[in-house]
Amino acid sequence: MRSDEAQASVNSAAFIKRWGMVLILGGYLLLGFVYSLTVPLFEAPDELYHYAFVKHLADGHGLPVLRSPGLIGLWRQEGGQPPLYYILGALLTRWIDTRDASRVIWRNPHADVGRVTPDRNVNIIVHTSREHFPFRGTVLAVHLLRIFSVALGALAVWRGYKLACEVLSQRGALPLYVMAMIAFQPMFLFITSSVNNDALAIFLGTFALELIVRYVSRVPTMAHWALLGLVLGMGALSKLSLLGLVPLAGLSVLLIAWRQRSWRTLLGGGGILLFISLGLSGWWFYRNWSLYKDPLGLRAFLSVIGKRYPQPNWWQLLGEWHPFIMSFWGFFGWLNVPAPSWYYVLVVPLGGLGILALPWGIWKWHRICRVNSHFICKLTFAVLWPILLFASLWRWTSLTPATQGRLLFPGIAALMLCIALGLWGLMPQRWQYGAVALLGGVALVASLLFPFLVIAPAYRPPRLLERGALAPQVHLDATFGDGIRLLGYDLLQRETKPGGEVALRLYWECLRPLKENYSLFIHLERPAG
Questions:
Q1: Mean of the per-residue pLDDT values for the chain?
Q2: CA 234 to CA 207: how far, in whole Å?
Q3: What is the C-alpha R_g of the chain?
Q4: Kindly report the CA angle at 47 between 118 and 314, in degrees rounded to 5?
Q5: Which residue in 343, 335, 332 sits closest to 457, CA to CA?
């Protein structure tokens, strides 16, 4: 009878895990689709430049070359990125006629990029009815690429779950919580539902780390090393930050060879790993050397995006922690549409507490679950990966303005695993998943609300009124260029202090179809002029 009960318990746990994984993946796909439709075209960081790279390839022009800034195409610095995502995107969209791109991409010269300002002039382009359903031309191509990114994000969520199962030896419900924390993190949803090579890099980075962690506790065959070499080679062709996985893979080869006392593993496994990864990606580094005398192409990249001058010191970089943390948890648009303050108040302390409590969580997991000695080894590799990512990002941020926490997303699965394990360790056994569930629940609620309460309102155009509905506080009749008339305004406050803000509502009338672009400036004067 006890045997039957034990088997029933095992079957029940397996059922919960299987359907839990299905529900989380389904929820991610649904939310990713919502984000891809809610965020206006090109209103994710650098999405305009990423799409321009894809279009350049789809139009048959070959890989871009980074020359002087004056000769750079619309792809700008993204033309120097490793090309795998863009090649796949070009193959996906090359059948679409995108000659209307110049009419869809109507740049806003006054967009507040990378900063939050009172006027909330956040849109990088002017959005028109061309973006409405049914999608055609360039709009259709962008939405197809966004769906492609969502699919890659789903693969990353799945491999993140597998990574957590591998490290934690599939014990308890914690791997499912880790999976949910990845899938419903609002910034992760925002990035993986846009045209961006990060989606592919996150998937390949998570997959490669999972393979490394899996191998260090088993006896990998040459076929296993070949698979890891393939993933590493594809990663090198996706984003340069994934090169940090190469020393981790090499360390895993050394560790396994030492444990087996096997030169065959060291030379054979390491050789296959190096041969396949370099054979797949080596041409890209050779091309960079031929064009720029730099195998990574970073000097050419920096010449376009611009260097920091003077180069900041460590203390100055630490002063940029606030936008870094915000852009990890949720900072939308071109880093100019923040989440509500309550969201940061909840998730930032919980995330930081989880990281700080990780050593306690490791000890507690090892003591209660009585996992084998491979647990510490596997977890060490999982912890090293985000540390390497952070170190490379720190170096990159010292060279050019790039203080964005989202650039750690290739290691998001390992980071969420560390946070979940730390929070789990802090709780008494009766409520052992309480803090983890709280963080995951806040992320889920936020990811459900933000598309409709934060992102969409930031880009909503002014309301059109009938003449009879106009009721400004102050009536005017000022015409600009025989095409626009200012009918009046509402002054929404009567007083302000120096350095404060003044809110106005202006009533405009268009007198004729306009071919010119007008910029509006409002000057505030004292009563004496």
A1: 90
A2: 11
A3: 26
A4: 70
A5: 332
